[in-house]
Design goal:
The complex is a heterodimer of chains A (261) and B (568). Chain A has twelve helices and two strands. Chain A is mostly helical and 261 residues long. In chain B, β7 and β8 form a beta hairpin. Chain B contains 22 helices and eight strands. Classes of the chains: A mainly alpha (261), B mainly alpha (568). Chains A and B meet through α8, α9, β1, β2 and α11 of A and α5, α7, α12, α13 and α17 of B. The structure holds protoporphyrin IX containing FE.
């Protein structure tokens, strides 16, 4: 067709071509990217480690490598310990859904038993921090002391009331509202991504327990002052004054002006 | 000689005859006061003042009432607030802070919030009132600016207003720094950083102000004196002057039927305006109280006590300081240079100690600059519609745009987390927008104003387009235009003739070239910039002319010329 040949040289052709290429790539990626391959029934597996390895191979090896040695997209998992696995899988961060600057919290895809199995497998590769005992993760410590520790060590990233905050280049410290005590402990212990590690020599298990108690106190969400506007400080307060506040005043002024004298 | 009794001295004094002859009790008291103070004359003068009615004239009142409300609630807070950095262990009823070491200032603010009956509500009213005070000041300023109300003879009042706006901001910042929570301490720390950037004397200045290094024990009591004594006194004083000048100048009004540069159409202060204004005070109080009881503000217990080693994500100042914070966030890092062992952080100096006063200097200077450009020395009591002063309106919108860019930049972290964007991209976006945005805003606003000007002229001269197509007997088509009713029309007709543009032609009246002075030529250039596109509103004379030269089929109703000329 003559017209088609002519159109091939049209300046927009390049864009159309690019667009088509991007679309196919994107669709292909959606299919290829790791998804919830329904975890194989673990009943047949002899030990937890083997069951964990099976789950790992099916869901994680594409990024972390078949020996968890790490790959182009993901770090080695040797020595990260069961605590890291429990945190990453328990908060739904792993398996990572899409590449990005940071693995976001997602609905979790595996039950606790499967997570423990993968944890056992990773722990068998090299020694690393274990899942903390419930003695320290259920709260019941000193909230006020925990608050002091929290403000010095965590508030600069997570905000004084745990609302979260921005880090550079699209990274962020997430909100800490409604996070399980165990995961808070594990986050401190393993330091996911941009978060520093708080070893037991920095923050003792009791310190961590107090921090958890403090965050649980925050979670109760008691706002003695009324509706809290997200608890993120002066920005929403200013926005509120500029919209709702002055808006009401102007409406009242107009209403009063309309009133016959 | 015998006539020189006390009565004799009063001979011919008509007041003595009327002394306390009022029949009512209130009248009797008023008479008693008047006999001793002579207030009646002044009161009569004030009460017979006439105020025009328009909602935008109430913005200043919102500011006034919010100020009064913050003053009253502030006094309440002083009953319990302890302005001291002395250390105590908290033992009040807020469990999550029990046993924590803190300053007395913070502990007493917690005490007000949790253990004083109604204390939290009063604190919230004080703070919401403070925010709305500054919001209302800014809105009031916009009204004055965009209607040209600051023109002669009201320039001094514009200057007073500018000062009030700046002082309100400083007053707010001082208050925000008092409770000594993590956020307010961070704000103070930032302010101390700004002062350190002053060349040469910076560190000495900080030592002087803080009585040593940061934070020290001196700053809270000092800020307290400034916040509850010094600044409120200056603000109230300036505010009184502001109001007196409004009385002296009389209030401006929008053009409309019967309104001229020489009269004021509206209600007398007594009783109508007073009743309305008094009612409005309670409305403003009610709105602020409502907001304060439903929405928490500055939940200091969430932030914890100030600790120089801690800081919280999302540290922002109250909104009115936001633009300076934003300027600092946008300032690139290379603005810090060091030579000869001295570090010179001029980026921070520019973004804070230079920017803050600069904004107010520019604002204060504007009326005088405009007057110099236009050469307009007339008195103005009729407001200009913003669209009719296209260049001024465009300048205003451009300035607001620049301000808003800085302001939004102060929330770059909140924008990043809430819109899932990269804070670095946002920062670059705002940096570029700071320069491009105002230009764009200027151009767009000007276009809109000019379009509206054209539409107004069209409407006044030819009436409203009805959309009805009429076919004449000889087959021609035209759209029927419906004349505006007279009332509407007067809002669109100018109240005053356009400025006689003092453009220097460069020749004297004999047509001989005369070298214009450099400043004159510069002025003429600016005046051209100011007026070149303006499409002046229809003058009454033009209107009459238009009606007499018979616009054929465009059915413009005749108006009696008597009515029009009576406007002069
Ligand atoms: C009209 C201008 C005023 C403004 C804009 C203003 C603003 C503020 C602000 C923003 C705060 C922080 C409040 C908080 O969140 O707790 C504050 C605190 C305070 N203000 Fe004012 N204020 C004004 C007038 C006054 C006056 C006249 C007084 C006293 C006579 C006063 C007494 C106090 C006290 C004692 C505090 C600290 C107590 C506390 O924070 O609960 N204020 N002010």
């Amino acid at each position: 067709m003559k017209t088609l040949a002519a159109k091939r040289r049209h300046p927009a052709a390049l864009f159309v071509l690019l667009l088509a290429a991007l679309l196919t790539m994107g669709t292909a990626y959606a299919f290829a990217s790791p998804r919830t391959t329904a975890a194989p029934s673990t009943a047949a597996a002899a030990t937890d480690e083997e069951a964990g390895k099976a789950i790992f191979l099916a869901n994680c090896a594409s990024c972390h490598g078949v020996l968890a040695q790490g790959g182009q997209f993901a770090p080695s998992l040797a020595g990260v310990g069961a605590a890291s696995v429990d945190f990453q899988m328990g908060t739904g961060r792993m398996p990572m859904v899409r590449p990005g600057v940071q693995a976001p919290r997602e609905p979790r895809l595996f039950d606790q038993q499967q997570i423990n199995q993968v944890g056992a497998y990773i722990a068998s590769l090299a020694p690393g921090p274990a899942v903390p005992s419930t003695e320290y993760t259920e709260g019941g410590g000193d909230a006020a002391r925990g608050g002091e520790i929290y403000r010095v060590n965590c508030a600069m990233c997570h905000n004084a009331s745990g609302a979260g905050g921005a880090l550079t280049r699209g990274k962020y410290a997430p909100s800490l509202r409604g996070v399980e005590g165990k995961h808070i402990y594990e986050a401190m212990l393993t330091g996911p991504q941009s978060m520093p590690v708080f070893k037991d020599t920095n923050l003792s298990p009791t310190d961590k327990k107090d921090v958890i108690t403090f965050l649980q106190e925050v979670d109760k969400g008691e706002n003695p002052g009324g509706y809290a506007l997200g608890n993120i400080g002066p920005v929403p307060e200013g926005m509120f004054a500029w919209t709702f506040g002055i808006g009401l005043m102007i409406l009242a002024a107009i209403w009063l002006g309309r009133k016959a004298a | 000689m015998s006539t020189r009794t006390t009565d004799g001295l009063r001979a011919g004094d008509s007041r003595s005859a009327a002394t306390s002859s009022s029949s009512t009790k209130a009248g009797a008291i008023a008479g008693w006061v008047d006999d001793r103070t002579g207030l009646a004359k002044g009161a009569r003068y004030i009460m017979s003042k006439v105020f025009p009615d328009h909602w935008s004239f109430m913005l200043g009142e919102v500011a006034m009432y919010s100020m009064i409300i913050t003053l009253i609630t502030g006094v309440f807070l002083t009953f319990w607030f302890v302005p001291s950095a002395g250390h105590v262990e908290y033992n009040g009823s807020y469990i999550p802070l029990k046993g924590v070491q803190m300053s007395e200032a913070y502990a007493s603010t917690l005490h007000i919030s949790f253990d004083v009956r109604g204390g939290l509500l009063i604190r919230q009213i004080h703070h919401w009132g403070a925010l709305l005070f500054v919001v209302a000041i800014v809105c009031h300023m916009f009204r004055v600016f965009f209607t040209g109300a600051y023109r002669k003879p009201r320039e001094i009042n514009w200057l007073i207003g500018t000062m009030l706006a700046m002082l309100a901001l400083i007053e707010g910042f001082a208050g925000y720094s008092l409770p000594d929570d993590l956020l307010s301490g961070t704000g103070l720390r930032a302010a101390q950083g700004f002062m350190l950037t002053i060349p040469v004397i910076g560190s000495y200045f900080v030592y002087f102000l803080f009585g040593g290094t940061f934070p020290g024990e001196a700053i809270i009591p000092r800020l307290y004196s400034v916040h509850i004594l010094l600044l409120p006194a200056i603000i109230v004083g300036l505010f009184a002057a502001h109001l007196i000048l409004v009385m002296v100048h009389k209030h401006t009004q929008y053009p409309g039927p019967g309104r001229t540069n020489e009269n004021v159409v509206g209600f007398r202060l007594m009783p109508v305006y007073t009743a309305k204004a008094g009612g409005f005070f309670f409305i403003v109080f009610g709105i602020i109280a409502l907001i304060s009881s439903l929405f928490s503000i500055n939940s200091i217990w969430n932030y914890g006590p100030y600790d120089p080693t801690a800081v919280t994500a999302g540290s922002q100042p109250d909104w009115y300081m936001g633009f300076a914070d934003g300027a600092l966030r946008l300032m690139p890092g290379w603005t810090e240079v060091s030579f000869g062992g001295f570090t010179f952080t001029y980026g921070i100096l520019l973004g804070s100690l230079v920017l803050l006063p600069l904004v107010y200097v520019l604002m204060g200077a504007y009326p005088f600059v405009e007057q110099w450009i236009t050469g307009d020395q007339r008195e103005h009591h009729l407001l200009e519609r913003p669209r009719n002063a296209d260049t001024r309106t465009a300048i205003g919108v451009a300035a607001i745009t620049a301000y808003c860019v800085l302001w939004f930049a102060a929330g770059n972290d909140i924008i990043a987390t809430h819109l899932s964007l990269s804070i670095n991209d946002i920062t670059w976006f705002f940096r570029i927008l700071f320069f491009v945005g105002p230009l764009l805003a200027f151009w767009v606003t000007k276009r809109i104003c000019l379009a509206l000007q054209r539409a107004d002229r069209e409407k006044v001269l030819h009436g409203r387009e009805t959309g009805e197509i009429v076919r004449t007997a000889d087959g021609r088509f035209y759209e029927r235009h419906e004349p505006l009713d007279e009332y509407t029309r007067w809002h669109l007709v100018t109240g005053e003739p356009p400025v006689a543009l003092a453009l220097d032609s460069g020749t004297d009246h004999n047509g001989v070239r005369r070298p214009a002075s450099k400043s004159e030529r510069r002025r003429a250039k600016w005046a051209r910039f100011f007026y070149k596109d303006n499409i002046p509103p229809v003058t009454p004379a033009e209107l009459i002319a238009a009606q007499h030269d018979g616009h054929g089929h465009e059915a413009v109703a005749e108006i009696e010329s008597g009515e029009t000329t009576s406007r002069h």
